Inverse folding.
């Protein structure tokens, strides 16, 4: 990223959003039966999107910020812009979407309603891209709501009573949050007029004049984001949404919904209010406290779960709040928060892929069934272990890099208490992830596995390989953290923009 | 190049293991001889920095690092040879643990930046677990569990200290921490790090895992755990919390006192044990107490370039001696007179009998303590107390040899690695000391100073025999049993206990139940709404006040 990025009108951000939307519509149109065509369409769209994001990345590295803008109603523009923070999220979601598509194709082999599933799957990614590229809060809101609606059919995909119930809870929470978000948005526009996201915050001009209103608006919008980011006490929808199929959980936890909330918090703090204003209003400490409570509480609950996916779900509650904690503390910790956006994504998606694989191939869903699993599925077990060690924050995995910047940043910012939160979280993470790893590798395997279905070699490969790839990312993002264009390098570049 | 080789070799060995068959055999052999590669950087003295790796990996041999490298190369290779011939069972996981521990130890030895050290230390701590639970018995799982709990407790302190250092200095070059006055303002980090690394050294009362974990591992693994890996903790102290960085030697007195306490406590607890390897594990604890004394006393010798070399000498002496004693345990040391002699020789060295390597190391330790007394930082009594630790060690070694004689019918054959280790233990420290200018001249006074403590011990043994009272017996790991009982009480109403490594968190059910209650409430939407309102009001109030 060079010195002064120049914003230019460019259709690319729109194209990148539309690619998956068109793919989604096309998949819905070609119907249930044409499996091969659907596969080709799915993969082609994913690859195309990845290439487009790469193209944008090259533009941004070259110093141009492509932007697409058109008036929704006079005075209110829909803005899609690819700044470096957008790219961080967009590249994460486009890479993981491709991997998840491969996984989902294998996972849903011969199950009903695949056209519907993949249709909404694509629309869901459209919304995620829109959120990544949103150039102002209104655009963000539009795609945020699209995401809520597009994920609902995925959560209830199996159509069971439990799934429908989970879907209902999901809608209650997210729509409730959205209402508050909308109120906050309108209030904000009334106070400061429509503003684009800008490094350092657009509210800085309003200053401290309307202190109380500013605080109230922040709290309202933060609650709207906090629902999706699963901040305690707004998190209860997430564990119950675990009834969804594994690829959906993977996407929900690593890329789309939870991440969108966390990303929204980053935008709110850095681009709407600006770090300085947030701390001047005393909101930074409040957000950091909320995030800390979530981190510890989520981990305590994770420790209690006996069901593998449930444990992973509560761990997400905990881990995603690292991001909020980072931006709330500010300074170097912001880098830790932003980079965790990517790191948590690759680690958690690996674990969900593996959990799905264990359930599909061996019928293993509970933690006490994991014994000796590495003997049957060594690659999956290795991938899971890498991700688990990363979650604990042990070097050389990606999670360590996040923890390092969060902790060091907090100390540098004079908020040493954050280190205690991180250490408690580390211990709890170790307590609920390490036993799983040890079980898989060291305990004897049972004579019979609980269940699972026999499948072709291709399906097994489709289930195992994506996890191996994302585990590779987990390792690489840690080991190569210091090299150019690593997520860390990128996050540092973004943070530099905000300091300027 | 030599640094690349030395770092990659253990990883390569570990990478070959999963393939089974011939590659695995090659991997095992490679893992066994890989420690010898550590002599390469010692000879070449080069430095390698990879800024793209992690947050900046930087490797070099410290100016005082030679005895540590020498110890690792010699002891680890001999133990590896022993392990190639004697370790059975799940060899794949054992050797994976072996090579990854070696990899971590290599990084710890050569680390020049904070991240490098931490990476190596974590690898050592985690990979050692694989060797500890190798036997897969109930006792091994228990030892492993307690090891992990203590290791992560240490880890918590270490990572706090590391993050605080990182907050002040980033991925700091470790040599800077030893410059006087540099690390002022991070006292908290210093104490956290001292406490965290003390777990690895088994400083009382953080020692409880050591007498369980060291003996339960296979013989060669015990040898490196007790001989070499404990020194990772000392390296942590020396590199991350060096006393040379302080402007005054304040704070040295509690360290020296704790060290002396550990030295005696280790012996007393060891005397209550009946297994050879457990006695040796307690002896390690006791000796690490002396290492702590030496470390604390570094602060008194600020201007003395030989102070660190003298401490290195203590490390080299103890490491080789302890490795040979542990290897003896796998060779039926009580089966013949020759074997008993081979056991007794390093044992005498540990007692610091005249002309042994212990004699040499102890003389330097006493000199360091004397420096402290001269400065008025230590009470004059401490000199005599340090001398008395030799008497205490003599008691423990007497106990060891007596136990070994009782196990006369052990059928294990002698392994050449043991003989070589005993030889190395008696010679290598002298040779190195001569080359590093830390040898001493035997005079009447220092020979006498090394003679009377064992004589005192002899007298004590004689008295105890006349008394004819059987000594008390304590369970291995002593006070850990109390903790386990408390933990069991918390665990009672939880699900039926599952054997194996799953039980780590002890407070889980109690905390869990209350948390689950809260969580049950939070699933109700109206309550969440009210809570949100409450949070809003509180936030509002706080902001309004601010």
């Amino acid at each position: 990223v060079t010195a002064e990025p120049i914003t230019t009108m460019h259709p690319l951000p729109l194209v990148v959003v539309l690619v998956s939307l068109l793919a989604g519509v096309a998949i819905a149109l070609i119907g249930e039966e044409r499996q091969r065509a659907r596969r080709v369409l799915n993969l082609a769209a994913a690859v195309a999107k990845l290439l487009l994001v790469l193209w944008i990345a090259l533009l941004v590295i070259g110093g141009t910020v492509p932007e697409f803008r058109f008036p929704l109603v006079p005075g209110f523009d829909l803005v899609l812009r690819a700044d470096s923070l957008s790219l961080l999220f967009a590249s994460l979601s486009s890479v993981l979407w491709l991997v998840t598509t491969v996984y989902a194709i294998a996972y849903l082999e011969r199950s009903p309603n695949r056209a519907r599933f993949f249709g909404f799957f694509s629309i869901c990614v459209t919304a995620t891209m829109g959120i990544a590229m949103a150039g102002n809060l209104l655009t963000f809101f539009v795609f945020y709501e699209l995401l809520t609606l597009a994920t609902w059919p995925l959560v209830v995909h199996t159509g069971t009573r439990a799934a429908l119930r989970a879907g209902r809870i999901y809608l209650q929470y997210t729509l409730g949050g959205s209402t508050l978000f909308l109120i906050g948005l309108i209030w904000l526009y009334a106070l400061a007029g429509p503003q684009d996201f800008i490094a350092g915050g657009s509210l800085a001009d309003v200053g401290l004049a309307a202190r109380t209103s500013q605080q109230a608006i922040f709290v309202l919008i933060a609650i709207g984001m906090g629902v999706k980011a699963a901040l305690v006490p707004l998190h209860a929808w997430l564990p119950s949404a675990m009834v969804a199929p594994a690829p959906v959980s993977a996407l929900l936890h690593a890329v789309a919904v939870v991440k969108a909330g966390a990303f929204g918090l980053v935008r709110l703090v850095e681009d709407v209010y600006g770090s300085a204003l947030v701390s001047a209003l005393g909101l930074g400490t409040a957000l950091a406290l909320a995030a800390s409570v979530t981190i510890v509480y989520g981990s305590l609950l994770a420790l209690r779960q006996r069901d593998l996916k449930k444990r992973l779900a509560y761990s997400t509650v905990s881990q995603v709040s690292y991001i909020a904690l980072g931006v709330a503390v500010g300074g170097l910790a912001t880098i830790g928060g932003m980079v965790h956006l990517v790191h948590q994504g690759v680690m958690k998606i690996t674990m969900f892929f593996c959990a799905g694989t264990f359930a599909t191939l061996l019928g293993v869903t509970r933690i006490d069934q994991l014994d000796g699993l590495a003997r049957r599925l060594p690659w999956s077990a290795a991938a899971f272990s890498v991700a688990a060690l990363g979650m604990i924050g042990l070097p050389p995995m990606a999670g360590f890099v996040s923890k390092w910047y969060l902790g060091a940043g907090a100390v540098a910012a004079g908020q040493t208490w954050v280190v205690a939160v991180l250490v408690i979280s580390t211990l709890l993470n170790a307590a609920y992830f390490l036993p799983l790893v040890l079980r898989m590798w060291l305990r004897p395997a049972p004579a019979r596995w609980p269940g699972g279905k026999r499948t072709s070699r291709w399906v097994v490969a489709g289930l195992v390989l994506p996890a191996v790839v994302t585990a590779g990312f987990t390792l690489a993002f840690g080991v190569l953290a210091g090299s150019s264009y690593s997520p860390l390098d990128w996050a540092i570049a973004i943070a530099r923009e905000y300091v300027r | 190049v030599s640094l690349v080789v030395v770092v990659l070799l253990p990883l390569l060995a570990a990478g070959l293991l999963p393939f089974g068959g011939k590659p695995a055999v090659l991997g095992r052999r490679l893992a066994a001889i890989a420690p010898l590669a550590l002599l390469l950087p010692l000879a070449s003295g080069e430095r390698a920095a990879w800024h793209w790796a992690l947050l900046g990996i930087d490797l070099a041999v410290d100016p005082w690092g030679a005895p540590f490298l020498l110890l690792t190369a010699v002891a680890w290779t001999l133990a590896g040879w022993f392990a190639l011939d004697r370790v059975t069972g799940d060899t794949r996981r054992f050797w994976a643990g072996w090579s990854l521990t070696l990899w971590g130890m290599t990084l710890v030895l050569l680390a020049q930046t904070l991240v490098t050290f931490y990476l190596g230390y974590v690898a050592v701590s985690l990979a050692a677990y694989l060797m500890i639970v190798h036997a897969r018995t109930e006792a091994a799982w228990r030892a492993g569990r307690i090891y992990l709990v203590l290791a992560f407790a240490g880890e918590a302190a270490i990572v706090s200290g590391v993050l605080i250092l990182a907050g002040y200095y980033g991925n700091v070059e470790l040599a800077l921490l030893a410059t006087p006055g540099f690390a002022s303002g991070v006292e908290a980090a210093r104490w956290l790090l001292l406490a965290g690394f003390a777990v690895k050294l088994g400083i009382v009362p953080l020692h409880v895992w050591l007498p369980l974990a060291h003996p339960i591992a296979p013989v060669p693994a015990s040898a490196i755990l007790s001989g070499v890996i404990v020194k990772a903790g000392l390296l942590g102290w020396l590199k991350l919390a060096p006393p040379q960085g302080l402007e005054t030697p304040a704070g040295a007195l509690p360290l020296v006192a704790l060290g002396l306490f550990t030295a005696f406590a280790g012996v007393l607890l060891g005397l209550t044990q009946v297994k050879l390897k457990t006695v040796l594990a307690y002896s390690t604890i006791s000796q690490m107490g002396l290492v702590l004394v030496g470390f604390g006393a570094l602060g008194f010798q600020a201007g003395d370039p030989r102070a660190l070399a003298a401490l290195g000498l203590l490390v080299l002496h103890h490491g080789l001696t302890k490795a040979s004693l542990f290897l003896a345990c796998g060779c039926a040391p009580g089966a013949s007179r020759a074997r008993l002699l081979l056991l007794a020789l390093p044992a005498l060295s540990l007692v610091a009998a005249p002309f042994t390597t212990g004699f040499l190391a102890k003389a330097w330790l006493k000199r360091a303590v004397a420096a402290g007394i001269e400065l008025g930082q230590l009470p004059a009594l401490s000199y005599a107390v340090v001398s008395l630790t030799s008497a205490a060690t003599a008691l423990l070694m007497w106990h060891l040899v007596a136990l070994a004689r009782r196990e006369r019918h052990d059928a294990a054959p002698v392994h050449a690695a043991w003989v070589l280790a005993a030889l190395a233990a008696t010679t290598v420290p002298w040779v190195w000391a001569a080359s590093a200018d830390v040898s001493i001249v035997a005079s009447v006074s220092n020979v006498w100073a090394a003679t009377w403590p064992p004589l005192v011990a002899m007298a004590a043994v004689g008295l105890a025999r006349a008394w004819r009272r059987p000594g008390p017996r304590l369970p291995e790991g002593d006070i850990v049993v109390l903790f386990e009982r408390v933990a069991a009480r918390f665990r009672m109403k939880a699900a039926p206990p599952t054997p194996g490594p799953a039980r780590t968190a002890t407070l889980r059910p109690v905390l869990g139940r209350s948390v689950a209650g809260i969580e049950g409430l939070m699933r109700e939407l109206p309550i969440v709404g009210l809570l949100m309102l409450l949070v809003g009001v509180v936030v509002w109030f706080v902001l309004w006040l601010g």
Observations:
- The longest helix of chain B spans residues 138-169.
- The longest strand of chain B covers residues 47-50.
- Residues 492-507 of chain B have pLDDT under 50 and may be disordered.
- Chain B touches chain A through 59 residues (CB under 8 Å).
